[in-house]
UniProtKB/TrEMBL annotation:
Protein name: Ribonuclease P protein component
Gene Ontology MF terms: 3'-tRNA processing endoribonuclease activity; ribonuclease P activity; tRNA binding
GO biological process assignments: tRNA 5'-leader removal
Originating organism: Helicobacter equorum
InterPro entries per UniProt: Ribosomal_Su5_D2-typ_SF, Ribsml_uS5_D2-typ_fold_subgr, RNase_P
Class of enzymatic activity (EC top level): hydrolase
SUPFAM superfamilies: Ribosomal protein S5 domain 2-like
Catalytic activity: Endonucleolytic cleavage of RNA, removing 5'-extranucleotides from tRNA precursor
NCBIfam families documented for this protein: rnpA
Length: 139
């Protein structure tokens, strides 16, 4: 089986949908917003649900939004962090997710192995949180 198909979020409304409805995981190095299909509860607005359907209609395995500020560093540094995040999204555990990655200034001190470990922790945290939400809504 080949690598996962990663598609990017295209516009502000797609980013905002993930920001408002996804789970946020903060570290001193980055913030990661993750939207799982389980998090689309009946409480979500119709507009947000339509935006999510538009995103899903592109038929990719992972949807990734990158928001890397110039405060992070020069263009080669910013591109390095984007490449790392795209490479990490090739992992099968990210399949079916919508992600927005926002690095912070401290990311300069983070190795790739530590970065990958923190992203996996974020994923576990989000799955655990979504199970709690789903159990409260559908119970």
């Amino acid at each position: 089986m080949g690598a996962l198909k990663v598609d990017s979020l295209k516009n502000k409304r797609e980013f905002d949908c993930i920001f408002r409805n996804g789970s946020r995981f903060d570290t001193p190095y980055f913030s990661l917003y993750i939207l799982l299909p389980k998090q689309l509860t009946p409480k979500i607005s119709q507009k947000a649900f339509r935006i999510y359907q538009d995103i899903q209609s592109r038929k990719a395995d992972v949807y990734l939004g990158l928001s890397v500020s110039k405060k992070i560093g020069c263009a080669p540094k910013r591109n390095l962090y984007k490449r790392r995040m795209r490479a990490l999204c090739q992992d099968k555990s990210f399949k079916g997710l919508c992600l927005v990655f926002v690095p912070k200034i401290g990311i300069k001190d983070l190795s790739y192995a530590d970065f990958a470990t923190m992203c996996q922790k974020a994923l576990k945290y989000t799955y655990k949180k979504s199970q709690n939400i789903a159990s409260r809504v559908y119970a």
